[in-house]
Amino acid sequence: MVNSKHQWKAWIYLAPAIAVLLVFTVWPIFNTVRMAFLENYSGLEATNGATFSFGVGNFVKVLKYKRFISCLKNTMILCVLTVPISTILALLIAVGLNSIKPLQKILQTIFFLPYVTNSIAIGMVFAAMFNIVGAFYGTENELIVTAGIINNVIEFFGGTPVNWINYGSQYSANIAVMTVYIVWNALPFKILVLLGGLQSINKQYYDAARVDGSSRRRIFARITVPLLSPMLAYVVITGFIGGFKEYTSIVGIFGENMGPADDAGRLNTMVGFIYDSLSTNSQGRASAAALILFGIILVVTLLNLYVSKKKVHY
Length: 314
Fold this sequence. Notes:
This protein is mainly alpha-helical. It has helices at residues 7-36, 43-47, 57-64, 66-99, 104-112, 119-130, 149-156, 171-199, 203-211, 216-244, 248-254, 270-279, 283-311; strands at 134-137, 143-146. It has 2 domains: 64-130 and 171-311, MetI-like (MetI-like fold); 132-165, no CATH class. A two-stranded antiparallel ribbon has the order 1-2. Strand 1 (134-137) and strand 2 (143-146) form a beta hairpin.
C-alpha cells in the first residue's frame, strides 16, 4: 500500500495511462453522445463551419431506416443461436478435457488456436469450405459442378448439395453457415474459462458423491454445473456482448457486401450499419446507432445479471 505522503508518485506513474484513456476512450465516448444529439451531424460539414441543432432526429431516422430493422434482426438471431450452442459445447468439451490426463496440454493448445487466429482469415477458410467452387464441361460435354468440401461430405453420406453462400442461396443457409463459424470461433475462450473453473472445484465433492453411489449424470447436474455457474454466467454475458458486436466474421465469409451477390447487405449487423453510416459521412446517424446498440447490450447484460443472481451459486 502506498504511503499517503507519497501518493503523488503513484499519480505520476499512472499519468501516462490515464492520459491515453482520456484521449482514446473517455473523449470518444462523450463525443459520440454529443454527435448523436446533433441533427444530421456530418464531420465534413462541421469542418466547413456548419452548425447543427440539438435534437433526437438522428435516433428517429435510424429507427425508421428499413435496413436498421434487418440489421437488428440478423444480430438478434445470431446471438440467440450461437450463445447457447457455443456455451453448451464448451461445457461438454471442458468436462472432457478435464477428465483426461494424457495429451491434455496439447489438446488445450489445439482447442485454443482459433482464438489467436485472425477472424478474417478464418472466415475466408470457412467461405472456401462452404463455397460452390465452380463448374466445367466433362469429356462428353456435360456440365460438372464442383460443389465444395462441405457439399462433397454431404454427397458422400447420400445427401443433396446445398447452396450455402453463393448467388441465389437462401437466408436460412446463410445463417446456418454463420452459426457454425461463430460457434466454432467462440469455443476456445469459453473452453479456457470453463476448464479453469472445473480445475478449481474441490475434488472432495466428487469423492463424496462417488461414495454415495451417485451416477455421472447426477454428479454433473448436481455438483459440476452449480459450482461452475459463476463461470457459465460470465461466458454467457460476454457471449451476448460479443454477439451483438458481430461484424468481422460476416465480412470474412461474404466480404464487404455482407451477403450473397444477389442480395448485398442481407446479413448486415448493427456494427455493420454503424460502419456504413460512417462511410457516407453521416456521423450523427452512426453515433445514434452506436448508442442504441449500447442500450440493447446494457439491457441484455442487466437481464443476465438479474437471472444469474437467482441461479448462480458462489
